[in-house]
Write a structure and sequence with these properties.
Radius of gyration: 20 Å
CATH superfamily of the largest domain: Glycogen Phosphorylase B
Organism: Alteromonas aquimaris
Keywords: Glycosyltransferase, Transferase
CATH class of the largest domain: Alpha Beta
Shape: globular
Number of helices: 13
Order of helices and strands: HEHEHEHEEHHEHEHEHEHEHEHH
Number of domains: 2
Strand order of the largest sheet: 8-7-6-9-10-11
CATH architecture of the largest domain: 3-Layer(aba) Sandwich
CATH topology of the largest domain: Rossmann fold
Number of strands: 11
Helix content: 40-55%
Pfam families: Glyco_transf_9
Structural class: alpha/beta
InterPro entries: Glyco_trans_9, LPS_LOS_Heptosyltrfase
Low-confidence stretches: none
Mean pLDDT: 97
Distance between the termini: 39 Å
Protein name: Glycosyltransferase family 9 protein
Strand content: 5-15%
Length: 333
């Protein structure tokens, strides 16, 4: 069970693929969020059961009814939020596997009867892989992904890529406005790439924050070649990301979507530790001010703080300079 969010279900998909590779005869049911299902829905040999968080208690009742005839050998409770813990009560299982004490929050331990092994300073993806270790699934040298996309989505993306040639993607909006970089600095990096003859397109979801962020960037530059914000399905976005030379994004889903298809990511971080939540294969490309932010706020280095500690403030992303991002772009170019 992993309901949300897009980035986290991308990490969970690597776990699912690992189980399928080594134990192909295992029957897998994935309880997943409504939006996240739209990206994962074509993964083979998986029974998806969708939970819509907007339904609240009614959704839990519906889930309980759907799974009433099934008692699973193992339930992987891979989310510690209280709402997710409550959702897990609708699922019958002999073994209810949850996080270790250090990573357990919001009464998570009450809803499980077995715990994974502690893993200090683990990336979220590695934390999910700890569940496979607890089950005895053989290890892989590195995570692998197989997330099939609609044929019409891949055809659409191929057409866009053919028209654009080599291009980069900026997905500028995180789930909260305070985690977004400044529009004028996004414009600055777009202008820089334009000077290098690398076209830039904007991508993002249909939400108001995504659209407002894109509009603010467009007010500072006329060098954006295409604005796809709110205009793609998740499958179209994933397919387009696969064609991109690289992606620039804050702590948001498309950064992790890029990882699943092997597209490099320049991640922009201030509030959360990129060692824990950054783009898994591109931590060396992250531009982060997290370390200095938590040192300022807590008087301690990140190593001395509880894992998962967030820096707080509405203006922390302003600490990320345009020059620091330009330097990472130059490395990739």
């Amino acid at each position: 069970m992993r309901l949300s969010a897009i980035g986290d279900v991308c990490h969970a998909a690597a776990l699912v693929n690992r189980i399928q590779r080594h134990w192909p005869d295992i029957e897998i049911t994935w309880v997943i969020g409504k939006l996240e299902y739209q990206l994962m829905r074509l993964m083979p040999n998986i029974r998806f059961v969708v939970y819509d968080k907007k339904e609240g208690k009614e959704g839990i009742k519906r889930l309980r009814k759907t799974l009433a005839d099934t008692t699973f050998d193992a339930l992987l409770v891979m989310q510690v939020a209280l709402r997710a813990n409550l959702v897990s009560t609708a699922i019958k299982a002999r073994r209810r596997l949850g996080f270790d004490w250090q990573r357990s929050k919001e009464l998570h331990w009450l809803f499980t009867n077995t715990r994974i092994q502690p893993n200090i300073h683990a990336h979220v993806l590695d934390g999910f892989m700890d569940f496979a270790d607890a089950l005895g699934v053989p290890k892989d040298p590195s995570p692998q992904w197989d997330i099939p996309l609609e044929d019409k989505a891949t055809a659409w993306a191929a057409q866009q890529a053919n028209e654009l040639g080599e291009f980069a993607i900026i997905s500028p909006a995180a789930s909260k406005e305070e985690r977004n970089w400044l529009p004028e600095r996004y414009a600055g990096i777009i202008n820089h790439m334009h000077s290098k003859s690398l076209p830039v397109v904007l991508c993002g979801g249909p939400g108001e924050l995504d659209k407002r962020t894109a509009d603010a960037i467009l007010a500072h530059t006329d060098s954006v070649v295409k604005n796809y914000v709110g205009k793609t399905t998740l499958h179209q976005l994933q397919a387009l990301i696969k064609h991109a030379k690289f992606v620039i994004a804050p702590d948001t889903g498309p950064a992790h979507m890029a990882t699943t298809v092997g597209t490099p990511v320049i991640g922009l971080y201030a509030h959360s530790n990129p060692r824990r939540t950054g783009p898994y294969n591109d931590l060396d490309k992250v531009v982060s001010v997290y370390d200095e932010c938590v040192l300022d706020q807590y008087g301690k280095k990140w190593e001395a703080l509880p894992w998962g500690t967030r820096a707080k403030g509405e203006h922390l992303m302003e600490k990320i300079s345009l020059q620091a991002v330009i330097e990472q772009v130059e490395r990739l170019l």
